Amino acid sequence: MKSDGFWTIERSLLEVVVERETLTIKEIELFKAVDLWAAKECERQYLAADGAIKRKILGEDLIKRIRFPTMKQEDFASVVLDSEILTPKEIVSLVKYLSSVPRSPVGFPETKRCGFACVDDIQRCCRFTWLSNSPCRVYCDPVHDVINFSVDKDIVLHGLCLFGSENNTYSVELKIMKASSGKILASKAGYFASKLLQCEIGSYYGFQVLFDRNIILKKHTTYEMWAKIRGPDSLRGETGVSSIKCREVTFTFIKNQHLAVGFNASDVQKGQFPELLFASK
Asked: What single string gives the DSSP state of each residue in 117-146?
């Protein structure tokens, strides 16, 4: 997005642009354009273009639509901080987020904008050769599905798909961990509505869980997929494979050594985690 001429657009169009999910632009470049628009609007109104006035002109709703958590830390420090648009509390929260310090919600969208091309970039790896119509019991008590996996090439993991059932919603807590240390690399929690999804071997009822950050997974390293799911009975996969090649990347699935009472029915051959959503690094 070129900022030349952007500052001349109407406010209504500015709001549409900032809200748009499918922008093919880095968030820092969008912010620069928005900040310039605010500065030029200050000039038009004969106001000092300081941070507080620019924020007042833009409005809280528009500011809260900017995806600061998706920016690079150096861009945030060198560009956003100098604009003085954010409050001290917001700055502290975002600096902690960008430094991977445990924190509460930051108050800004944490997922990157999709862009027109991102759907094509995301690849799908299905670990099953057949989908069963038999329910995979999901208990009301907190039980877990867990399975380990590795890849033979570095990849970027966007998220996972989980099984559901028609017209149902599930409470999910999902984690990706390094198996050797138990270090959590990504996590996501929330409520997800099941819908009909299409994969290479057919269609099934389920839902995508996309992480707020893309996670880089290293080759020949074992990772653990861990999920706590609450809701109605769901479908499940059958005839899972221990190794499968998806778009030049070979995924190897391994039974988790801690699989025992208290964990659900997922293993290499059956259960949850039908698809991994990834991109080659």
From this structure: THHHH-EEEE-EEEEEEEEE---SS--EEE
CA angle 199, 205, 210 (to 5 degrees): 70
Output the CA–CA distances (angstroms, integers) from residue 82 to 7, 32, 50, 51, 75, in the order listed. Answer: 19, 11, 10, 9, 10
- pTM recorded for the entire structure: 0.58
CA 73 to chain centre: 18
> What are the CA-CA distances from residue 221 to residues 134, 195, 254, 263, 268 (Å)?
33, 32, 12, 23, 17
Task: State how far the Cα of 41 lies from the Cα of 49, in Å rounded to an integer.
Answer: 9
The three-state DSSP-derived secondary structure of 186-211 is EEEEEEEECEEEEECCEEEEEEEEEE
Q: CB under 8 Å to 139, separation ≥6 — which residues?
A: 230, 264
Average pLDDT over residues 72-77: 94
pLDDT tens by residue, 235-272: 888 889 999 999 899 999 998 876 554 445 688 988 89
- Is the confidence at residue 191, as pLDDT, over 90? no
Determine the residue type at 163.
F
**Residue reference for tokens 């998806």:** 246
Phi then psi dihedrals of residue 12, to 5 deg: -60, -40
Question: Start-end ranges of CATH 1.25.40 in the chain?
Answer: 6-98
Q: Under CATH, to which class is 122-280 assigned?
A: mainly beta
Q: Is the pLDDT of residue 80 over 90?
A: yes
| Region(s) of the chain under CATH 2.60.120.820 | 122-280
CATH number of the domain located at residue range(s) 6-98 in this protein: 1.25.40
